[in-house]
Write a structure and sequence with these properties.
It contains 15 helices and two strands. It has 438 residues and is mainly alpha-helical. The protein has a single domain, classed as Ammonium transporter fold (Orthogonal Bundle). A two-stranded antiparallel ribbon has the order 1-2. α2 packs antiparallel against α3. The longest helix is centred in the middle third of the chain and has 29 residues. The relative contact order is 0.14. About 4% of the residues have low confidence.
Amino acid sequence: MMLKNMLPRCIGLSLVLLVLMTYPVAAAEGSSLNSGDTAFLIICTGLVMLMTPGLALFYGGMVKRKNVLSILMQCFVIMALVSVQWIMIGYTLSFGSDISGIIGGLDWLGFKNVVFNSDNAYVGTVPHSVFALFQLMFAIITAAIITGSFAERMRFSAFIIFIFSWTTLVYDPLAHWVWGGGFLSKLGALDFAGGMVVHISSGVSGLITALVLGKRREENPGPIVSHNLPMTVLGTALLWFGWFGFNAGSALKADEIAGLALLTTNTAAAAASLSWIIIEWIRQGKPTVLGAASGAVAGMVAITPAAGFVSPLSALIIGLLVSPLCYFAVSRLKTYLGYDDALDAFGIHGIGGTFGALATGIFASKRVNPAGVDGILYGGVHLFRAELIGIIVTYLYAAFMTWLILNVLKGLIPLRVSREEEEAGLDVSVHGENAYNM
């Protein structure tokens, strides 16, 4: 009997809660916050967060089995470390009030006035705290990408100091220059979701790190023979899934630009995956699973800066063209120049991000993008010039600062594990664990 009486009340209470949940969010009278946009960005934040574990699996499947846990550990520690850094100082350096176009002020130091404060030029129709958390996920995945370049050889203590320093001194200023009202944004450079800020910066920094650390201590380092390709494919699938939030969420509202970014992201990934397969089939005689996965990632990297600025057909062309460039960088350029970028962070993210930024200056159309500017294909020259300057600045700054951080750090503690630790594998020698106890 009591159950019968409670059931209608529970249903009624649930309906009331449902109505309240769908009622527009308002921090104060006259607020422009929108519950739909807020829910959309919260979901996108979760999707981008999932990309870092996805990257851990993507990288983890490609290294030797004696080093898989070290890759997973690095990616998960980055999630924790950068989250703390972002609250402390990272967010305010990236998005605080502009200081001479170079860096953000200390308005949001320690997330001061971020929660329950919508008075910020970047947040639009979403709560300030949600915007800040969404941007945190970008900082995390950017730092995690670099780990692919120095896989199997960096000392864990050096790794922690390097990541914290790199995020503060490289990522945060670049984010401010492009997204936080800095000089590159004033110059007219466009980067919808992170071609320069995320992919070029991490790819170039990964290359410099690989050069400073030196090659792996083996007779023939060469390409790593993937120890678990199913793990890599699973990681690729999670990256593809998360990239929808990465690019579509960068519209910061649930509108037609977010829908366009979603469509162009999937189109470029699909086209690039097919393109990589075709290249391998022609040059090596067999299409590989790793090639299909690498192509998909290259396509998503290339479309990232252009996702909300180009048409679906342009995204298709970008996807088809980026794979030959990245394939060449991975299979030829690395061998020719002799650097040991273990998991090809530069070959995929550096080269792919560079092409994507240039493609933005070529294929952007004011008919579909909110910036209202055209690329070279539609008669606009200024955007391509701004993109080229942005690329050059990002290359030079990321390369120099990464080199400086590593060399200062090298004077304090060893950067690399010992020869014995490297031969035993970082899983056992550094973390005292085995991925496969068989």
